[in-house]
Specification:
CATH topology: Dihydrofolate Reductase, subunit A
Shape: globular
Order of helices and strands: EEHEHEEHEHEHHEEE
Helix content: 25-40%
Distance between the termini: 37 Å
Strand content: 25-35%
Number of strands: 10
Largest sheet: 8 strands, mixed
CATH architecture: 3-Layer(aba) Sandwich
Strand order of the largest sheet: 5-4-3-6-1-7-9-8
Structural class: alpha/beta
Number of domains: 1
Radius of gyration: 16 Å
């Protein structure tokens, strides 16, 4: 598996919300463009609930759905029932893991890159439990570093919000944090 990127792509609000009612609770054009740029032309691996939350098949991407249900199928989805099956379906090239929490946990040992968008609001939606998201702990560290760097530039403290318009930080081990500054309710 060396030489390829397996990227986690996550968007969440300041309060940890990643969804509300099974849907993304904000609409940020810049983040949608970023998601498209990061996933276009490559497989995306996701759980069944994440697949079902999509507005439909996303053009230019393969949809590999990891599910425990041996009878589940959907038009346009390639179905896997284990990490190993999903890796075989994804092939030897780069691919993205887009959720949910259980899928992130399964792929944690093989992930090479983490992409996080932090939405600057407290959404009050669904938040994964610590066990589901333990694989994303490195994002918390990266976000703290980004806040500290921003605060240092501004002469403030590390609790300051990230700059309007967002910020971007690339840290070792392929960590990349994008910050979105404004959300439009979905």
């Amino acid at each position: 598996m060396s030489g390829r990127n397996i990227s986690f792509i996550v968007a969440r609000a300041r309060d940890g919300t990643i969804a509300r009612g099974g849907k993304v609770p904000w609409r940020i054009p810049g983040d949608l463009k970023r998601f498209k740029r990061l996933t276009l032309g490559a497989p995306m691996v996701m759980g069944r609930k994440t697949f079902e939350s999509l507005p439909g098949l996303l053009r230019g991407r393969r949809h590999i759905v990891l599910t425990r249900d041996p009878h589940w199928s959907a038009e346009g989805a390639e179905v896997a029932h284990s990490l190993e099956e999903a890796l075989v379906l994804a092939g030897d090239g780069d691919f993205s893991v887009i959720g949910g929490g259980e899928i992130f946990r399964l792929f944690e040992p093989v992930a090479t890159r983490f992409e996080l968008t932090e939405v600057h609001e407290d959404t009050g939606g669904e938040q994964p439990d610590d066990d589901e998201m333990r694989g994303l702990a490195v994002l918390e560290v990266a976000l703290a570093v980004l806040r500290a760097l921003h605060a240092e530039e501004r002469g403030g403290d590390a609790g300051d919000d990230l700059p309007e318009g967002g910020g971007l930080l690339r840290v070792g081990h392929g960590v990349c944090v994008g910050a979105a500054s404004a959300a439009t309710p979905a």
